[in-house]
Design goal:
elongated; 8 helices; alpha+beta
Amino acid sequence: MYTMNTRHGVIDRTAAIPLYHQIFLQLRDEILSGLRPFGSLIPTEKELASTNSVSRITARRALDELAQNHFVSRKRRVGTTVIFRPAAKPIEANIDQAIESLLEFGRVTKVRVLTVCTEPAPPWIAEAMQIKPGEQVVRAERVRDLDGTPLSYVLSYVPEVLSRHVTRSGLSKSPILKLITKAGYRLGKGTQTIAAVLADPFICRTLGVEPRSAILRVTRAVCDETGKPILLTIVHYRSDRYQLRIELQH
């Protein structure tokens, strides 16, 4: 039976982070990076203890933390098995396929609507949406959960003309793209920018992550068929629960 040992030197005994949590973070990153794919076996408590020169109790706490965060399943006589799968399906460059993938993402996650309000557009929002600074826009904040755990914090802006359609009630039932198409708009081109950032205190509290955690930020702008921006969304994803994969075709 093949198992992959954690790399030597993963433990920093001078750090303030508990040893068991350091092992957890290392295993978590290996799972997220694909080094430990779905269905693969994690080293046993004895193997982890030996590799990292820690006690069995410390190794057990690391594996228990993985299980509590839904990365692995622990069963007697079977072992510890990776159960994590990326939340999103592959997104291709075609806008129709990308939108369908986003709608599917909305179907497999649960949404909590935090706020929906109309406010003057800040300068950077106005520039992105090609409107005058101070012009009214609808601002919507949501949190999407997967398996009972916060996955992403979503902030969206749409023109004020959509205020009758993009409501708290509507967002609690349907993804914002669906509300826009229901309002009679046909979607055209879109752009998406991906960046790695460190979570600020608000994001940490909202997503339930540790201070200064790495966060995946996706900024997505969608235009209608005339080329006018109709939606600007900024999403902060927990990097320990989400991966974005893009298929490249010749």
